[in-house]
Amino acid sequence: MGLHTALVANILFPFQEKLKKHDTVAIRQTMDDSQWWPAEKLEQFRLERLRSLLLKAGKHVPYYRDYFSGLGFDPHAINSLADLQKLPLLTKAIIRTEGERMKSEVARGLARFNTGGSSGEPLIFFIGKERVSHDVAAKWRATRWWDVDIGDTEIVVWGSPIELGTQDRIRTIRDKLMRTELMPAFQMSEPNLDQFVARIRERRPKMLFGYPSAISHIATHANKRGVHLNNLGVKVVFCTSERLYEYQRETISTAFGCPVANGYGGRDAGFIAHECPSGGMHITAEDIIVEIVDEQGRLQQAGVTGEIVVTHLATSDFPFIRYRTGDIGTLSTEHCACGRSLPILKEIQGRSTDFVIAADGTLMHGLALIYVVRDLPEVQSFKIVQESKLLIRVMLAIKAGANRKYLSDVVTTGFRKRLGEEVQVDVEFPESIPAERSGKFRYVISHVVQPFDNSHNA
Questions:
Q1: Contact predicate 220/251, CB 8 Å
Q2: According to the CATH classification, is domain 3-133+267-349 in 3.90.700.10?
Q3: What are 293-330's pLDDT values in tens digits?
Q4: Side by side, which strands form the sheet with 281-283?
Q5: Is 147-258 assigned to CATH 3.40.50.980?
Q6: Topology of domain 355-456, per CATH?
Q7: Can you give the pTM of this predicted structure?
């Protein structure tokens, strides 16, 4: 660890977290130990935390207080993690319907978040300091598995308005101290890609973090230009927020001359799992209980594919208990060669996001359009289909009584701002959004031939 990295990781970042009243440092230190605990000790630790979460939910959260009472469920009687199955699954529809009743009555200073999610259903929820501390600690621990740390030079290829909208003076100073730099993932024009590649070569980061689709596109562009990125000293590329395809892993790894670490999670479900250098996709078991269920919500055994259901043990302010993620995965019974006792998520499917192409040919991440739609409270679900560079269809399933003209104008204005004023935006209002023939839901689909090898796309 270099001097600057040691200063940031051991002094500056912990000081920042203390100012925010986050317990991140202590939690990460505990996690550094607990990942090596015997399975029995880890299981008992999780059970105690689960019981605590359910007790707080039953006492302070109106939705759960009423539900537990009607069900005759006593959190004190929880004796195993399997007792979770006595509770119903939590869906986005329930969270939207219950609204404020999902909040703890004793919670203070909650931050509002939203997500489009794999199902294309916008969701508004709230996160407290406990949840933030645990998620940041889990990510920090996983980062350190790869011999990099907070304070090492980092380039983040991202596109969330939460991050891109906070690049004020204080944030800029903080990022310089932390040696992290943000690159916008939305606009992948040839000139921008040239700038990204040049900046990566100049910056010589120890790690990259971002969407696999965007980073693999940068890697492909560098290869096309004959620019080498494998001599910069990059130790690892962290990919998250989308399904990481093997062709993307190979493209990125070859281009940067380093391993690629897959991460799985979301703003709603939390930091669920992360890949270690031995290849195991380890669940953040201290914070997260993962169940796999079939279409009827019945629990599936390890090795059987089904929907990923998550209970986040650090969400007493706004509980996520048996939350249906909409993602498909498989639990493994195998033990990782690294020796960690953290359980393994064998396979993750269904988190692919298409690119779209603007009228001027600029390649743009599909999330650029999703962010226009997903925070409209009147929208219950959506689907975006790009038919051509000059035509895009938007299907919005909306609440009864919602103003269609207003929603159409907002979406049309937002899309044209990103894709070009000459683009025709057809907004439709079906009663429900159809799934694909496979049964999966893709919330962004582009029928435009894209400037990379489509034969790889799943």
A1: yes
A2: no
A3: 988 889 999 999 889 999 999 999 999 999 998 888 89
A4: 180-184, 154-158, 207-210, 236-239, 260-266, 270-275, 281-283
A5: yes
A6: GMP Synthetase; Chain A, domain 3 (3.30.300)
A7: 0.82
